[in-house]
């Protein structure tokens, strides 16, 4: 096992796929000459040249569309958004074109394309740079949505995403690019899309959390353990397709569920998981499903308000104690 930063694991995945298949290329703002806004693509221009690591103008609508056209013609583009907030400028290309081309062409055209970049809040970046987009894009049939919490998953799932014949949205985090973790040194390491990971086993309460929220959930589980409660933590890894079977299996065991999700609460990922669990495991629930979300407001800029806006360890512990009736 090699220890890599998240940015290094993503770079390794892209580089390996570009060496394996000359149809794969990377395109986005500052990915080439500047080595990437977050240094994810550092050194890739030197290795692969300007035909395959391509700097673009500040025009997400344009280069997303260019990438979709390239995918329709047999290439496998990786399109980097400097932040997923900027993908809203390319929304029509992603949800009307990439998502629908295979269906509307009767399978004559595919769009094997990966859109990737950082998602969610990253500190004091204010409302227009802090949206969590997973629930928005997962609403559209034809799109696969992956959200990673660690370097090993990032490498294995990104390689699988590049090889997938459908459009995949790959969500990272600015705050985690420097996160270090062990990454498999297995040759051609891939992970299956659509399979959750049980990160911590326990019998008292199930916590489902992805991306940055996963680390918050693990910290909450440690705090609960000090109080005598063992939480099972599940990282879904793939938002769509969702591995609901693994989540339900855990809820059948623990009889309680808390979902931590930094999306705003209305029609969030947490809302969908809650609904699917009550459809499949209602009779096993000993308490209402609890959700821990960001506040239902635009993200504040002031640090004290931002702290209050985001989900926290304390909120997660409180939610778990509520479903456990620990304070009754």
From TrEMBL:
Keywords for the protein's UniProt record, in alphabetical order: Oxidoreductase, Pyruvate, Thiamine pyrophosphate
Full protein name: Pyruvate dehydrogenase complex E1 component subunit beta
Lineage: Bacteria, Pseudomonadati, Rhodothermota, Rhodothermia, Rhodothermales
Transketolase-like pyrimidine-binding domain sequence ranges: 4-179
Pfam families noted in UniProt: Transket_pyr (PF02779), Transketolase_C (PF02780)
InterPro entries, per database record: THDP-binding, Transketo_C/PFOR_II, Transketolase-like_Pyr-bd, Transketolase_C
UniProt cross-references to CDD domains, sorted A to Z: TPP_PYR_E1-PDHc-beta_like
Native source organism of the sequence: Longimonas halophila
Cofactor requirements of the protein: thiamine diphosphate
One annotated GO molecular function: oxidoreductase activity
